[in-house]
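Researcher: I'm preparing a figure for a lab meeting and need a structural model of a single chain. I don't have an experimental structure, so a prediction will have to do for now. The sequence is pasted below. Please return the structure as C-alpha cells so I can convert it later.
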Amino acid sequence: MVVAEVPKLASAAESFFKMGVERKRFRPTVLLLMATALNVHIPEPAAGGVGYTLATDLRTRQQSIAEITEMIHVASLLHDDVLDDADKRRGIGSLNAVMGNQLAVLAGDFLLSRACVGLAALKNTEVVSLLATVVEHLVTGETMQMTTSSEQRCSMEYYMQKTYYRTASLISNSCKAIALLAGQTAEVAMLAFEYGKNMGLAFQLIDDVLDFTGTSASLGKGSLSDIQRGIVTAPILFAMEEFPQLHAVVYQGFDNPENIDIALEYLGKSNGIQRTRELAMKHANLAAAAIGSLPDSNDENVRKSRRALVDLTQRVIIRNK
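Model: Understood. Here is the structure written out cell by cell.
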C-alpha cells in the first residue's frame, strides 16, 4: 500500500517499517489472529468454488485492516517524533532527525492518506467510521498530553483516558473492524473490542514500567524518556499515593533535574512499579477473558488462533523491550 509517485516520499514512509521490525509485527499479528479466531461461520471451501472465493475475499479485506492499522500507527509515531523533537527511534536515527521535520510530517500525512484510500476500498461505512474515530482519538490523546494541567498530571483517571486514546483505541477499534467484516454479532464485535482495548492498555502500562527499569539498548531509546519530558506515568502516580509529598515535585515539573532525582527516589521506595505491573496484568486477564467468552468452536484453526491470542496477553506482560 505504501506507493508514491515521488520516490523520496515513498522512501521516507517505507523506512520506518524497516526499523524495529520485531515490534512492528505486534498489531498485525493480533489482527490476523483475531480474523482467524472469529471466522467461525465460514465452512471449509472447495478450491475454486464460490465459498472459496468468499473466504479468500474476506481474508484479503481483513488483511487490509491490519495494513491500514499499521500505517495509522506509524504515521502517528512519525508525527510524535516531530512534536517531541526526538532524535532516536528503535535505537537508530528518527526520520525527522535524518530527513528533517518537513519530510517526516509529509511522510506521516502520506501514510494517513494511503490508509484512507485503503479504508474507502473496503466500502464499509461502519469500519470507516471506526478507523476515522481512531485518528481523532490519536490527535485528542496527543493534545491531552501536550496541554496537561498540574491537577490532570496527577490524575490516574486522566492518565488512563489519555492512554486509551493514544495507544488502545487503535488496536481495540481495529479488532472490532475485523469482527464486523466477518459479519459477527454486536456482542462478538464488542468482545473483540474489549480484547484490543485491554491489550493496548496492558502494553502501554508495561512500556511505562520499562521506561524506568529498561536500558537504552533494550528499549531503542533513552530510558527515563517520559519523565525527562515531563510526562507522569502510572509508576509515579502510584508512588504519589504512597508518598503524598511527591505531589509538590510533580506540580513543579521536571525541568529541574533535581526533581527527577527526587521522584526516582520516592519511586524506588514505593510499590509503584509493582502496582503498575499488577494493573497491566489485570488488563491482560480481561483481554484473555474476552477471548474465553467468544462462542464455542470445534474448528481447530479457530481454537489455535484463540489460544495464541490468550498467549499474547502474557507475552505482553513479561516482555523486556
